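Weekly structure sync, notes
Attendees: PL, DS, HV (note-taker this week)

Item 1: Phosphoribosylglycinamide formyltransferase
DS walked through the input record. Source organism listed as Brevundimonas aurantiaca. Sequence as pasted into the shared doc:
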Amino acid sequence: MKTRVAVLISGTGSNMAALIDASQAADSGYEVALVLSNIEGAGGLAIAAAKGVQTVAVPHKLFGKDREAHERAVDAALRAVGVEVVALAGYMRILTPWLVRAWEGRMLNIHPSLLPLYPGLDTHARAIAAGDAEAGCTVHLVTEGVDEGPILGQARVPIVDGDTTASLAERVKTAEHRLYPQVLGDFCKGLARG
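Item 1 (cont.): predicted structure, written out as tokens:
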């Protein structure tokens, strides 16, 4: 029995698409039961629907500044379809402690740096400006601190002469598309055994 996963997105969902594609392998530890976005009309929703995955939008704008009310609606949508694990994939909302606690130990995120280096935004520009030899990506459990949760896996990408934030971002994204499905699959298999 595969673990039921929801993928939360805000945009085009390239990591979400990689997660769906990997879930279709017979030996995958998970199935994507739902793709949810906080943005109505997010490009990734159409991609997920075309891949046969149920989608829903829970627009945060309808809730004004009440972030927890928005998250309670998100949580209800997740539980309505029997989600067991949540994978954030370009979900551009800082979560409240309420949602983090509700899914504690069962919510993963991918971040485009080698955490603990460069939490937050502009990771590629910061790595290049620092003169780092490599960049990469990290899959971690979500905790109340931004990009601070326990690390489940990392992939390293060399920074080469002449790299721009765009060229580095493209190579890191390729690494993300390999790393996230692998780590999520291993995590879900571990849950099933536990």
